[in-house]
Amino acid sequence: MKNSFMISVLILVLSAHFQMLRSQEQPRSELKVVRSVDLAKYAGTWYEIARLPNKYQEECACNVTATYTVLDDGEIKVLNTCVRVDGDTAKAEGRARRASEEEPATKLKVRFAPGFLSFLPFVWGDYWIIDLASDYSYAVIGEPDRRYLWILARTPALEEATLKQILERVAAQAYDLKKLIRTKQVAPTSDSH
């Protein structure tokens, strides 16, 4: 009886503590996306410049790219590649589509699960374009919880001044960039005989 009372008190104390911590969290403003995107211009290959760590890319060591192809049905074929730590190339193929007709085209959903599972809402993740150069030379992808972030460019590198401006805008959207990973883009070497 005494043990169950102590456990109940401990649960109440911990519950109150977590409630207090939750109430002290700063509410985040809604993540802002760019107003519009021309998906035909957006299509093509993008080089990853930087990202927040995520479980899907733990093995990626360098040369991370994303290639988008607009399909006849309006969806987008997604092909992500990277060179893994072991030197092999990893590929993941998926699909992206507009989140809804009521939302801007810059709010997309993406899935890498097999197509027969596409009816399940939880296989689709948010892919929001939160920054985009007017000439489509760079793009920044995020999602409302701010756990994921990718900075992409049409070339393997961005000028530091441009990257600094992008990071300032991302930080202004309440992203924590302390763990940001700069992606290595290594030119392939040729064997000379």
Characteristics:
193 residues, alpha+beta, Lipocalin, eight-stranded antiparallel β-barrel, 9 strands, 21% helix, globular, disordered N terminus
Task: Tell me what the structure shows.
The chain is an alpha+beta fold and 193 residues long. It has one domain: Lipocalin (Beta Barrel), CATH 2.40.128.20. The chain has three helices and nine strands, in the order H-H-E-E-E-E-E-E-E-E-H-E. An eight-stranded antiparallel beta barrel has the order 1-2-3-4-5-6-7-8. The N and C termini lie far apart (81 Å). Mean pLDDT is 84; it is low at 1-27.
Concise summary:
21% of the residues lie in helices and 33% in strands. It contains 3 helices and 9 strands, in the order ααββββββββαβ. The protein has an 8-stranded antiparallel beta barrel with strand order 1-2-3-4-5-6-7-8.
Furnish the topology, listing elements before pairings.
Blueprint: H1 2-24, H2 39-42, E1 44-51, E2 60-70, E3 76-84, E4 89-98, E5 107-111, E6 125-132, E7 138-142, E8 149-153, H3 160-172, E9 181-182
Antiparallel strand pairs: 1-2, 1-8, 1-9, 2-3, 3-4, 4-5, 5-6, 6-7, 7-8
Question: What is the CATH architecture term?
Answer: Beta Barrel
As for the number of domains, it is 1
Percent of residues in helical segments?
A: 10-25%
How far apart, in Å, are the first and last alpha carbons? 81 Å
Q: Could you give the order of the helices and strands?
A: HHEEEEEEEEHE
Radius of gyration from CA coordinates: 21 Å
